[in-house]
Structures are given as C-alpha cells and as structure tokens.
UniProtKB/TrEMBL annotation:
Residues 1-50 form the Reverse transcriptase zinc-binding domain. This is RNase H type-1 domain-containing protein. It holds the Pfam family RVT_3. Residues 154-276 form the RNase H type-1 domain. The lineage of its organism: Eukaryota, Viridiplantae, Streptophyta, Embryophyta, Tracheophyta. PANTHER family: BNAC02G40300D PROTEIN (PTHR47074), POLYNUCLEOTIDYL TRANSFERASE, RIBONUCLEASE H-LIKE SUPERFAMILY PROTEIN (PTHR47074:SF48). One of its GO terms (molecular function) is RNA-DNA hybrid ribonuclease activity. It comes from Fagus sylvatica (Beechnut).
Length: 306
C-alpha cells in the first residue's frame, strides 16, 4: 500500500518515465495508460473485483487523483470502509496483474476477491486480542520508522504450548517503512518466555549482521530483554548466555540502540512469530513479505503518515 500510495509501483507509465522502452498501455484492457490508479482501481478487471463487495460501490476516485487520494477517500468514507480489506484487495489485484503479464493462467475477478478476503480472515484469526480492532487500547501505541539512513529491526516470540514449541518473528524496515527482510522460525519450547524473547532478539541481530546493515535500531516488547540488552552489566539469568551473545554481535557492529515498544506497536513481528506455528523450517523473505503482513504494515504506515 505504501508503494502504491507513493507512486512507486513499476507500472508501465512509471517505467516509461524512467526512460525504459515499454508500451504504456494497460495489458489487461488495452485501452488506457497503465497508471497505479488505473491498474488497481479503474481498469475494467479491477472494477469487477471491487464490485464483489457493496461497501466499495460508493467509493469514487477523485478526478485526476492518485491512488493515495483514493486511500484517503476510503478512510474518510461515511459508510466505514474496511481499510484492511481494501489493502488486501489492492494487493491481490497487483499480484494477479503480475501473473497475467508473464502469460500465466490468471484468476478471475471473483477468485481474486475471494483470495483477498480469505487471506484477511487468516490474518484476523492470528491477530492477538490486544491489537484486534475490537479491543484497541484507549492510548494506542504505533510503530514509528527509524531516522533517515537507518533501519529498525522488530522482534518477538510466541509460545505454542500444545506443540511444545515456540515461534520467533523478525522484521527489518527502512525509514520509509519498506520491509528489508522478514523471518519466521519455529524453535523447541524453552523453560521461560524470556528465553524465547532473548532468542528472538538474537535472530534479529544475526539477520541484520548477515545483511551487513549499519545504524540499526532493535525494538521488542519485552521490557526485561530490552533492559538486559541495554546494560553493560553481565546477565546472570537463565537466558544470560543468549544476551551476552547478542551483546557481542551488537558490539562488533557498533549497534547500541535497543528500544522497548508495547505489543500493539510490535504487531508485525508478533504475527511473524505466530506464523511459525505452521512451519517446519525457518522462512526468510528478503525485500518482500508474506501476504498476511500486508494489513499490518499498511496500518503502520498510514498511522505514521496521518
């Protein structure tokens, strides 16, 4: 959503502006230039997708407006449009557009809508009660992007008692909120929540180290682990060895910034940790993300810009 709202998707008109020799016509309808607002909203195919939900029937893009203008119209709509569903449908349309362009069998409008709706339902079921839209705190905490030229790595852990396992989630984003890397990993159940959180912090540090990133802020929702990482004193707890390993990696890269954030501001990392429940091996996404994250990151970026 943030790429679409910032005119950063590689549609044909944008490629042409970068002096790339392409036909600027929309490959789907063959009638209009392929702009972001066209491919995601006004193209006949996209329109058929949106018409699967009547709540979008009263939404109209401003004349000559951008997709960002359309997002603001959706947020201000009197009929209370579901912004999460809006974001997921837009993503599904873009995904289908890319499949269509490489001449693969592409889904119908009805199928694209169903895919978006079902993915959103999966996300909602994984969302912890603390951040569900029906249980918002009176004083919400939102994720904030790092300063220009730096990165922020959020990490979290989740416990799966019935599986005797735990999950680790890590997401690294740049100052624009773009995901640089995400990770979901299942581990054996530890003897304490703090050990799981400490291992999540270690995975965040190692991922940033492997990517050779500098100026990284590490953020988690365990105040105990953040405090242990922030002090120069030796950690002598049952998770102390992990903390000292984290400090060694941080010292080698001159990373000194560890921040605590409340759970509702760390929902992206938490969702990745929960996602590990169904994994048999660690999953890492570079410069992209699993689709379940789209509504979370869209909310984070809209919250920051509003």
């Amino acid at each position: 959503m943030w790429r679409a709202s910032n005119n950063a998707l590689p549609v044909n008109t944008n490629l042409a502006h970068r002096h790339i020799q392409v036909d600027t016509t929309c490959a789907e309808c063959q009638s209009y230039p392929e702009t972001i607002i066209h491919v995601l909203w006004s193209c006949m195919f996209a329109s058929q997708v949106w018409h699967n939900d009547q709540s979008f029937s009263a939404l109209h893009a401003p004349m000559g407006g951008s997709f960002k203008d359309l997002i603001w119209c959706a947020m201000d709509a009197e009929n209370k449009i579901d912004i999460e569903l809006f974001a997921m449908i837009a993503w599904a349309i873009w995904k289908r557009r890319n499949i269509f362009r490489i001449n693969q069998a592409a889904d119908t409008p009805d199928r694209v809508f169903t895919q978006a709706r079902d993915l959103l339902q999966e996300y909602s079921q994984a969302l912890p009660p603390q951040v569900s839209k029906h249980h918002q705190p009176t004083d919400p905490c939102i994720w904030k992007p790092p300063p220009p030229g730096s990165f922020k790595a959020n990490f979290d852990g989740a416990i799966f008692t019935n599986q005797l396992s735990a999950g680790i989630g890590v997401i690294i984003r740049n100052t624009n909120g773009d995901p640089i890397a995400t990770l979901s990993k299942k581990i054996p159940l530890a003897t304490s929540v703090e050990i799981v959180e400490a291992r999540a912090a270690r995975e965040a540090l190692l991922l940033a180290y492997q990517l050779q990133l500098s100026n990284v802020i590490f953020e988690g929702d365990s105040s105990i682990i953040i405090a242990a990482l922030s002090t120069s004193d030796e950690c002598v707890t049952n998770y102390g060895t992990i903390i000292e390993e984290c400090k060694a990696v941080a010292h080698s890269c001159s990373w000194r910034n560890f921040q605590h954030i409340r759970r509702q501001g760390n929902s992206a990392a938490h969702l990745l940790a929960r996602k590990a429940k169904d994994l048999s091996e660690a999953n890492v996404w570079l410069a992209c993300m699993p689709p379940e994250l789209i509504p979370v990151l869209s909310f984070d970026n809209v919250s920051v810009s509003s």
